[in-house]
Design goal:
heterodimer, A: mainly alpha, 2 domains, two-stranded antiparallel ribbon, globular, B: alpha/beta, Rossmann fold, six-stranded mixed beta sheet, 11 strands, about 40% helix
Chain lengths: ~475, ~325
Amino acid sequence: MAVQLAETAPPPAKASPSSSVMAHAFKDAVITGLIALGLFTPLIGFETVIIDGALGLDYRPGTLAVMVGIIFVGRLLLNLTVWSPNRKPSVRSGPTIFDRAGTTIGPAVKPLLLAFAVGFPFIAAFAMGGMNESRYLIDLGILILTYVMLGWGLNIVVGLAGLLDLGYVAFYAVGAYTYALLATSAPINDFFAGFLGETFWANWAFWICLPMAGVFAGMWGMMLGFPVLRLRGDYLAIVTLAFGEIIRLVLINWVDFTGGGAGIASIPRATFFGVPFTAGENGFAALFGLQFNPMHRIIFLYFVILALALITAFATVRLRRLPVGRAWEALREDEIACRSLGINTTNVKLSAFATGAMFGGFAGCFFAVRAGFVSPESFTFDISAMILAIVVLGGMGSQIGVAVAAAVMIGGMEMLRNLGFLNQIFGGDFDPSLYRMLIFGFAMVAIMVWKPRGLVSTRAPTIFLKERKAVSGDHVKEGHG
Amino acid sequence: MAPSPSPAAAGLPNWEADPILAVEHLFMRFGGLIAVNDLSFKVGRGDITALIGPNGAGKTTVFNCITGFYKPSEGRLVLAHGHAPTAEELARVTLIGERALVGRKSSVYLLERMPDYRVSGEAKVARTFQNIRLFTGMTVLENLMVAQHNTLMVASGFSLKGLFGLPGWNAAQRAATEKAKYWMEKVGLTDRADDPAGDLPYGAQRRLEIARAMCSDPILLCLDEPAAGLNPRESLELNNLLRSVRAEHGTSILLIEHDMSVVMEISDHVVVLDYGTKISDGTPEAVKNDPRVIAAYLGVDEDAVEEVEAEIDAEIAAHSTGAHS
């Protein structure tokens, strides 16, 4: 009986699908179109205009019809192609094409990217036809590398230890203000002027303050760590968010110490290990027999941030292979199991917070020396959100993914400022940079749909017996905060 | 480790003569609920001790108290390295308010005063969990390396030596890898060393959890239902593994188990809990025939025990052939 049914059932089913699929797709598209009509009528259908000094309504049925039409046709096409029930379901399992591409070209990517990063100022100067013309590109490179470094620093806390930190900008601010306050301090300047010369502190402040900025930020990381040790998940995120805001508000309101909202200006510039980038005879150009060019300082700054970022990456890679790094990852995987193995999770969390904060402090110190000016406005929650987005999009725990995400996000946003040709298409008053956040949002949604674990979702084991196999992201936990 | 011979000759069972862990008047209250009520028992050095009881009897609560995950409401948990402390020694360490008295030959730890990570790190009590808790995104080898965290942390000079690649660290890392290899061999996971722990089948995950606990060099291994979800063949392998752990490493074992084939076959000493109180304590033979145990397990009045005892004996015999209880 059952066999007969199975044999007789298919023919009518075979005849009907195309018509029923078509009908179903059409019905679905009509419903979607009606929803779009309902949504867009108030949003697009009406426009407030000023008529004779009073506010009036204008109607835009044409634009509304075009938008609803796009939705209807798009939905219909998707129903008939990608979402069609006749389409064979994907049987692909295991690593996706991204993962496979990652493993095959992976080994070559890192040296290539590194070589590109090192040669970037020269490539930029060559491509733009001169050092001065390449200033914009090199500044952009510096900005991207700053975010790469911040992303790698936050990656230790969020990606490895699984502790969600929404206030990372606080450590960036601590590093920046450490340098700004110490370098502009008159007593310290006078103290060194007594026996090392008038210009000693101005020339050496950056190199002396850089490690101190890291140490101070690390200490602030510990101070944040202590009260939040018992918190997990959402609660931890909220407290770290508050911490970031507290630091900013203190910077604004403690006017005597920090200069308040006006910030601190004329911070000493970076020097070539004590040799200033000036036109005088003691300057960098004269010392090396070059013609003076202000771009020397910019290119030098580029290499400083490149070195700092590489130190961050190197330290992270080394730490991951040490017991402390494995404990960070184990903490992300299962905190209770960690404690059952004699691991003091308090120390593990504090070390993660402090290490991440330290690199944030280095980056902050660099920010202050590059800009020559700091103010609380540079350390808003937007920066924390941007760094966290870079870590999440890059793939938590992945170095290369974070670097690519930083380059794409920061570079991409910057590129939108320069799409002049779009004006020829959309008219003169079209400003592409206004659409930055919209495109940014679309990119986030797209990544979360197709690559929910970030660009690089696999995890590289820290030790292996026979063969280093990447661990699929499905097994790797995200931490509970 | 040889069980100490002299007091045993005096006719005392091993757990009375040479206890590694003494649970004394343990109470655990959660609000108005008394999960563990005045529980006292001893775990013999070198013994395999089983803690059994119906569901909700408080077995896992006792485990969590011993391993420091819960702080007991009342009671004392004495763990002895070396020989068991005399009454005077014990009174002294209890009164001076220290959590441990560490000597060269023997030490005594009061587990109820120690946080969980010290119970495993210093007192050397390792545990596994009823619902397996592996680091699923890390490989088998990495799981076993994390278990040696404290040793490696010192060897890496708290990361400074390791960060700059100084020689002592590499040797320590190699030694830790060798130990991990030994335990992978022991539980039959050498071929899967570089696979993520989350990829392993259920039985292998249970074995890996035991291997991970053993990598922390425990003197007392606490296993929470190690045979849960295992098939009869895997249960048999587990028995052999536990026996060899005891024979070759001198590790005493305390286990919670519902599978009577495991309990009756390998344990030297069985403690039965019901509603947070101890209802029986003795050799497997003695416990099996204790009418109170039978009553607790089968829910009959103690008056009626006599009538159904013959029936029950058959039941337990059936369990011990391999079926799950």
